[in-house]
């Protein structure tokens, strides 16, 4: 029995030492990561990817003898291209070669947290873009919180203000806040059955006051400022609060319409700012988009005159977040989102 007790104590000491070493190692790695960038910018040569795809398909249709001849000719061609590229690099001619089409992807969620990556991508493009370049944003979003999508639209406005041609391609949906972003573009290309529009504002909030009263639970809400809270989850809502809440929604809708009108002056905003959405072909008739087509066809067409370069800023996750999955933080965020949703109108 004494032997087992000593053995258990020995194992406990070993476990303590191992845990302490692991904790120190995690702390050191975490501190070292803090010194690094908060993310990583990744560029993808989309033109090369499309060309490789086309070549693969073309070669696959040839017989064995033809494939051998093709590979031989391709080897010679690439050798000549490499030699020409070296000569061009030595000459250091500014602006030599094809202009570039910078391709960004934005797949927006309700809280539009993806804007953190978008702002980095736009900043990176602005740092190197030439006057003959342009930007394509492949956009997919059903909308969300006003301040999030307002900031996202402002990031795209930075390109417009620098007079860099901007095209937004919508394959699935650009509604509400998503359309707020899209309308900043010089040209909007939408797939035939993509969902476009929904220029409106919505907010809803459950109220549990009667439920709590039936169980004799009192809720106290103290505010400084008459309209610090208009509608609440748990307290008793008033007609005055409801009226103020509706006024705020209407004001937000008015700002939304004014923004769309400034970005697309030829659009009859009053006709389309009803909160309705339309499919791509219908949206073209309404003037909400400029052309029907998919992002794939758009990029293939651009590839004839531009070098396509994909730009993506990948957020770096903290080491502790990778281990824990940020469960507690996610739970807190979800709770706060529900509590605040009634105070945050959605585009």
From TrEMBL:
<dbReference type="Pfam" id="PF08496">
    <property type="entry name" value="Peptidase_S49_N"/>
</dbReference>
<dbReference type="GO" id="GO:0008233">
    <property type="term" value="F:peptidase activity"/>
</dbReference>
<feature type="domain" description="Peptidase S49">
    <location>
        <begin position="159"/>
        <end position="307"/>
    </location>
</feature>
<keyword id="KW-0378">Hydrolase</keyword>
<dbReference type="InterPro" id="IPR047272">
    <property type="entry name" value="S49_SppA_C"/>
</dbReference>
<keyword id="KW-0645">Protease</keyword>
<dbReference type="InterPro" id="IPR029045">
    <property type="entry name" value="ClpP/crotonase-like_dom_sf"/>
</dbReference>
<dbReference type="InterPro" id="IPR013703">
    <property type="entry name" value="Peptidase_S49_N_proteobac"/>
</dbReference>
<feature type="domain" description="Peptidase S49 N-terminal proteobacteria">
    <location>
        <begin position="2"/>
        <end position="156"/>
    </location>
</feature>
<keyword id="KW-0472">Membrane</keyword>
<keyword id="KW-1003">Cell membrane</keyword>
<dbReference type="InterPro" id="IPR002142">
    <property type="entry name" value="Peptidase_S49"/>
</dbReference>
<dbReference type="Pfam" id="PF01343">
    <property type="entry name" value="Peptidase_S49"/>
</dbReference>
<keyword id="KW-0720">Serine protease</keyword>
<keyword id="KW-0812">Transmembrane</keyword>
<dbReference type="GO" id="GO:0006508">
    <property type="term" value="P:proteolysis"/>
</dbReference>
<feature type="compositionally biased region" description="Basic and acidic residues">
    <location>
        <begin position="81"/>
        <end position="93"/>
    </location>
</feature>
<keyword id="KW-1133">Transmembrane helix</keyword>
<protein>
    <submittedName>
        <fullName>Protease SohB</fullName>
        <ecNumber>3.4.21.-</ecNumber>
    </submittedName>
</protein>
<feature type="transmembrane region" description="Helical">
    <location>
        <begin position="12"/>
        <end position="32"/>
    </location>
</feature>
<comment type="similarity">
    <text>Belongs to the peptidase S49 family.</text>
</comment>
<feature type="region of interest" description="Disordered">
    <location>
        <begin position="72"/>
        <end position="96"/>
    </location>
</feature>
């Amino acid at each position: 029995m004494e032997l087992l007790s000593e053995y258990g104590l020995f194992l406990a000491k070993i476990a303590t030492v191992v845990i302490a070493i692991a904790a120190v190692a995690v702390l050191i790695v975490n501190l070292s990561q803090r010194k690094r960038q908060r993310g990583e910018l990744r560029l993808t040569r989309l033109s090369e990817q499309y060309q490789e795809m086309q070549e693969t398909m073309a070669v696959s249709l040839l017989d064995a003898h033809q494939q051998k001849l093709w590979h031989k000719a391709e080897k010679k061609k690439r050798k000549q291209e490499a030699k020409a590229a070296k000569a061009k690099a030595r000459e250091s001619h500014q602006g030599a070669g094809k202009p570039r089409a910078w391709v960004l992807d934005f797949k927006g969620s309700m809280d539009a947290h993806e804007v953190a990556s978008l702002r980095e991508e736009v900043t990176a493009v602005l740092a190197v873009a030439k006057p003959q370049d342009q930007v394509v944003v492949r956009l997919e979003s059903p909308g969300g919180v006003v301040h999030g999508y307002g900031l996202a639209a402002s990031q795209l406005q930075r390109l417009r203000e620098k007079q860099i041609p901007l095209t937004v391609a919508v394959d699935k949906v650009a509604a509400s806040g998503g359309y707020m972003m899209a309308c900043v573009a010089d040209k909007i290309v939408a797939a035939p059955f993509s969902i476009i529009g929904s220029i409106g504002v919505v907010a809803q909030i459950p109220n549990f006051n009667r439920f709590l009263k039936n169980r004799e639970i009192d809720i106290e809400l103290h505010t400084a400022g008459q309209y610090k809270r208009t509608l609440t989850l748990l307290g008793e809502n008033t007609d005055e609060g409801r009226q103020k809440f509706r006024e705020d929604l209407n004001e937000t809708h008015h700002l939304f319409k004014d923004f769309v009108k400034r970005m697309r002056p030829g659009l009859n905003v009053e006709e389309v700012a009803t909160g309705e959405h339309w499919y791509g072909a219908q949206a073209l008739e309404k003037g909400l988009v400029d052309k029907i087509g998919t992002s794939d066809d758009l990029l293939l067409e651009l590839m004839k005159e531009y070098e396509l370069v994909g730009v993506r800023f990948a957020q770096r996750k903290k080491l502790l977040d990778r281990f824990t999955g940020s469960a507690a933080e996610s739970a807190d965020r979800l709770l706060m989102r529900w509590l605040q949703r009634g105070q945050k109108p959605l585009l």
